[in-house]
Amino acid sequence: MNRRHCATAAITLVCALTLLTSPGTAFAAPEPAPTTPASVTRPGALPPPPPAAPNRSLEEVRLEIDALYRKAASATDAYNLAEEQTQKQSAEIVKLAQEMVKGQARIEELKNRAGAAARAQYRAGGLPPEAQLALVDDPQLFLDGVGRIQQGQKATKDLITELTRTQADLATYTKDASAQWERLEANRAKKEKAQKEIKERIAAAKKLEDQLEKEELATLLQLEQRAQYDAQAAWLDSGALKGVGGAASEQGREALRFATKQLGKPYVWGAEGPDSYDCSGLTSQAWAAAGRTIPRTSQEQWRLLPRIRIQDMRPGDLIIYHSDASHVGMYIGDGAIIHAPRPGRNVTVAGAGSMSILGVVRPDK
Questions:
Q1: Beta carbons of 360 and 282 less than 8 angstroms apart
Q2: I want to staple 110 with a disulfide (CB 3.0 to 4.6 A). Which of 100, 163, 208, 314 is the partner?
Q3: Which candidate in 5, 6, 15, 279 is catalytic?
Q4: Cα angle, residue 224 at apex, residues 220 and 229 outer, rounded to 5°
Q5: Within 13 Å of residue 345, how many CA atoms lie on the same side as its CB?
Q6: Under 8 Å between Cβ of 287 and 253
């Protein structure tokens, strides 16, 4: 596609988003069409190419900052997964504890019943029922007594069986609770390690940025935009969008509506809304709003959700990025995504090929 035409489409998109966020003007949140928001008018819309910056050292700084944020994103996924598992394990421990309480109460009840039977025998002179039956002269009473003895024996056997089973269940609950507790503590340690790494990576990136002058920061942003532009252009030139054009499903449209309403909100690692998001927090909440629960992290989304070919993707599908599946965006059609990029950036529209694509997954397949 002619890049000048792409630039025209991008200007349309920027103007539309500017109107949506202009102070003092109220607009209804846009509802994405089955394939793409109306403001994206041409496949693979690209922003105007930023001027190439002459300072090579700044490009090296940009790459270093990008690497730090990438590592922070991977650590964020590890943190989010550990947090999710910790919550599940905490809930399981509570459930097991409740079962243990019920089991202990049942054991006490069964012991009381056994004790009552023993006390009844004591009141009868301490003789077992069989000995008492041998002293009966009346044949009918004897037969009735045999029936009662058989019923009593069955009741005693059932009592012992239930007591044994309940004690075994209680031992199992205790063992499971102990194992869950160990896993819980392990995931807490993972969370703490990931949280420390996230903070260290983000702090290191910010330290690099803080050392730059205002003009250098502006050039750094140009370099970032230029890299994204070149990557998107190369992706489009490869013919990646050939044959792509499926319509969004009903749930996909709902997920797109939700994601579109979050445009402009800041990226915060570990956030799931409503005021801020990380990349997978945005996609998981968008699909939750559409009535579909999906994994919390981009790595789990890649691991567990059905995978499809790029040529078959449609709006609402999730594009997973980088070899470690550390980033995710929602495809909106015409070669574009909505995503939460990284710390210091807001939820935005970007070229789907502006980052290294690992693959595509479909939550409602």
A1: no
A2: 163
A3: 279
A4: 145
A5: 17
A6: no
Strand partners for 346 = 266
Give the pairing of strands 318-321 and 327-333.
Answer: antiparallel
Residue 44: its H or E element? none
The one catalytic residue among 5, 6, 322, 339: 339
The owner of tokens 């403001």 is 39
pTM of the model: 0.56
Question: What does the block give as tokens for 322?
Answer: 């980088």
- Of the candidates 311, 306, 330, 308, the one whose C-alpha atom is nearest the C-alpha of residue 256 is 330
322 is catalytic: no
pLDDT by residue, tens only, the chain of 365 residues: 443 344 334 333 333 333 333 333 332 333 444 444 434 434 455 555 555 444 547 777 777 777 777 777 777 777 777 777 777 767 777 776 677 777 677 767 766 766 666 566 555 555 555 555 555 555 555 445 545 555 655 666 666 676 677 777 767 767 766 776 677 777 677 767 777 777 787 777 878 777 777 888 888 788 888 888 999 999 999 988 888 888 999 999 999 999 999 999 999 988 998 999 999 999 999 999 999 999 998 989 999 999 999 999 999 999 999 988 989 999 999 899 999 998 888 999 999 999 999 999 999 98
Q: Is the dihedral of CA 301, 307, 309, 313 positive or negative?
A: negative
Q: Which of 5, 6, 15, 327 is catalytic?
A: 327
Contact 284, 290 (CB under 8 A): no
Answer yes or no: 339 catalytic.
yes
Type of residue numbered 127: L
Residues 31, 100: Cα–Cα separation, whole Å? 51
Report the C-alpha gap between 215 and 3 in whole angstroms: 28
